[in-house]
Amino acid sequence: MKTDIEIAQAAKKEHILKIARKLGLGEDDIEYYGKYKAKIEPKALEGRKERGKLILVTAITPTPAGEGKTTTTIGLADGLGKIGKNAVVALREPSLGPVFGIKGGAAGGGYAQVVPMEDINLHFTGDFHAIGAANNLLAAMLDNHIFQGNELHIDPARITWKRCVDMNDRQLRYVEDGLGGPKSGVPRKDGFDITVASEVMAILCLATSLEDLKARLSRIIVGYNTEGLPVTAGDLKAAGAMCALLKDAMKPNLVQTLEGTPALVHGGPFANIAHGCNSVVATKAALKLGDYVVTEAGFGADLGAEKFFDIKCRFAGLRPSAVVVVATVRALKMHGGLGKNELGSEDLAALERGLPNLLRHVSNIKNVYGLPAVVAVNRFPTDTDAEIALVIEKCRELGVNVRLSTVWADGGKGGVELAEEVVRLTEEENNFRFCYDETLPIKDKIDAVVTKVYGGKGALYTPEADAEIARLEALGYGKTPVCMAKTQYSFSDDAQKPGAPEDFEVTVRAVKISAGAGFVVALTGNIMTMPGLPKKPAAESIDVDAEGNITGLF
Known about the structure:
Strand content: 15-25%
Number of strands: 25
Radius of gyration: 23 Å
Structural class: alpha/beta
């Protein structure tokens, strides 16, 4: 059996100009990054109306058994092409942290991939590097301002801006710097976030133009002065230079699927520590260029989909037409208590114990957000007819159909039935709405997410979080959406509670404002903004031969 990278390397790719022409774009509308990658020029989109129907692909709570959300997203777009629809796929860019860590890449799998797979999973067009450079320029200008006399009276003990690097590196979570003596800076406690957790990443993914980008960058709060008032990137006169670094990174990246479906891959905030969606400019570009736009949001629907609706759609004025919830029988049996080595045999009892996880996600899509949904089951050879029938029966009780997907093995052909159901759903009227009113107090918004989406009783707050919420509301930052930083492995803030736990409370241990992005971040449990590498990193298996061929990437 071929590996994902072997399938991708064997594929015959079309020149990127041919892919652009499928979208009605010409040579002057794109900027080449080799034969198979390009950026779309903003002027190419001027005057075009958003005509496409927006389809979100989300999933059940992740397990080590895997769900295949990105693979399904790509396969669905190819499936829409198989039935004669003009489809575009819009995805996030992979972070190097997971690529070299435990999760691997994020370009799909099997015969449902975006290519060139190696480029997309590694440096791609340099967007993440530009984001890291802009983030760290602001950090350098902040420390330099203090070193050069501190005209803004910044309190070094109340600096909130961190440096970042696009790598899992736990050693950098907490550092002390400026220790080389008077000429080497001002000593202080510092730390790094992974680039995908940087507010600059969130800002790039929510900005609608260079002007909007610069305005958002200027609103970033880097810390507080000795009077307790916020100090911003605008105060440091950093926004213009940061925007200059991000000028090209703002342009959406155009690539293709293995079957030649156009794909916009742009931006990449994590959904457990950030808002988990690709860029607004890429999504809006896709809606102008295609009739059906298939996009995804990170991790399970309690994280990525919630933020897609309550943050991205709210800010960008997007209205989804349908939602696909991805599941596997294997993963549902893990939610039912089985170990990863016990999934090969039929076990209807374990499946029935795990099904509430899927059903809660589906119910949220229909009843909290008012959108039509279909469940896509990635079928494995070990899945029995009785197990599939049980999933279909339970979903039918919620008024939701199930479609089997074999896109990993069959590409777009394996997504035709799913595509047909999605097209049917997009033609239905829907009653899309948000989970909460953004003008509510911060705690009310957090409680709305915990009770309506997670299924919990409410939230508890540490004294530090309580005090910060009061301070942010007093400073006028209370009437924004909330971005929940929470484990992806449970509806609760405890990764050891799979399935659909009940009667739990979520502990908010810290709160911070992302004023440029436009939301308040609530950190729960032990969620980290700088992950670490596992005991056996994926990087140990990645190599390149004398001809430059990469192996081991997945």
